[in-house]
Amino acid sequence: MQTPQMLIHLETQADLDDAIHKLVDQDRRLRPILELTGMPAIRQREPGFAGLAAIICGQQLSTASAAAIWGRVSTAFDPFHHDAIRKARADRLGRLGLSAAKIKTLKHIARELAEERLNLDVLANEEADAAHNTLTALPGIGPWTADVYLLFCLGHGDAWPAGDLAVQEAVKIGLGLKERPTPKQMAPLAEPWRPLRGAAAHLWWAYYRVLRNREGVIAGAK
Asked: Which Pfam family, any one, appears in the UniProt record (predicted)?
């Protein structure tokens, strides 16, 4: 198991560049993938409660719908703070476009933060699997949401979005698998990429976009 000293953070493009170069040296199967994609661009989101709330708001929605709802929520609560959400009436949040389940999730997280039972910032320095488990223990936070938060909001270099369909499809084609791997199967497949699984995810997303362009499909997913 990794120690905290071994954690790598992807906070700048230079961090990602360095991690990708180490990754392809670590696993030569990835070199032709990088040659096709070019160096992926780093993708970052706001950390803390606002970043997690934005991901929750966008769960199971199209990019456009997610952006519209988050735009209304973040405008209605500016500055965006967990106490404001904790105190807000559920019907007001519902009028902004949030489902009852998402309201329940956001209010629970807001209470945990207010009571200091949860600290989202410290997760950046925890081992990836432990940080993932902390987040998924929260009601309404699934594996994909946890991993996207760790990777894009905290720059966790070893976060691995095993449930992401685009990454699964890219891994299937890139590694020559017969079928798209399940989230459970994705875990052992990614073992050779520790402690840089987050960098590997960036590379596989880039490869997925290359594949979609080749097929003539409008790119943009993930």
From this structure: HhH-GPD
